[in-house]
Amino acid sequence: MAQGVIRTACRTKPLASTFTGKYQQYNMRTNVLLALALPLLALAMYGCGGAQAQPNTIEWLTLPEAVERAKTDPRPILVDLYTDWCGYCKRLDAYTFSNKGIAEFIGTKYYAVKFNAEQHDSVEFRGTKYGPSSEGRGPHELAVALTGGKLSYPTIVYLDATGSLITAVPGYYSPTQIEPILHYIATEAYKTQDWETFNGSFKSKL
What we know:
This protein starts with a helix and ends in a 5-residue tail after the last helix. The chain has helices at about 1-50, 65-70, 85-95, 100-110, 140-145, 175-185, 195-200; strands spanning about 60, 75-80, 110-115, 125, 130, 155-160, 165-170. A hairpin with a 2-residue loop joins strand 4 (about 125) and strand 5. The strands form 2 sheets. It has a 5-stranded mixed sheet with strand order 1-3-2-6-7. Strands 4-5 form a two-stranded antiparallel ribbon. Helix 4 (about 100-110) packs parallel to helix 6 (about 175-185). The protein is α/β, with parallel strands linked by helices. The chain is built from 7 helices and 7 strands.
């Protein structure tokens, strides 16, 4: 009896030792592989998510901020009228304003303003105070004033450096569609040239 128990105990001891040894070897191999793989993974993540993948961003201001900046460094003001529920407004952000050429041009030639056309805050503009709609989720008084009551989303309003209205352009525009409009306003070609003539001779830089 005693011998049988001893022999059984002796047989289990080498099995346990073998398992522990294999486990230690496995851990060692795993640690070596991880040590080799982590630097490569970090390099890949940097290449994909580092400086090369930084989004092209526009500095969005409030309308009072843009008007104030234009006093010392005159530029036209671009006002993006949007709502939270507008799908084409989101598309304008995702595809048009994120385009490198468009973002850079707006950043150097305009003061850009994002204006939620259904916001609940009052805004003072050119000596007049504009308030939110009295109908809950209706259009803001300033959005109505900037578009002459012809409001749809998105609408991009172009103002000169003094805040005077140049034009309001409703609808979604792709990068190549909005590019000539941006140049038409920024170069003040609208003062001497009709849109059809300018657009017909415009050469894209995108």
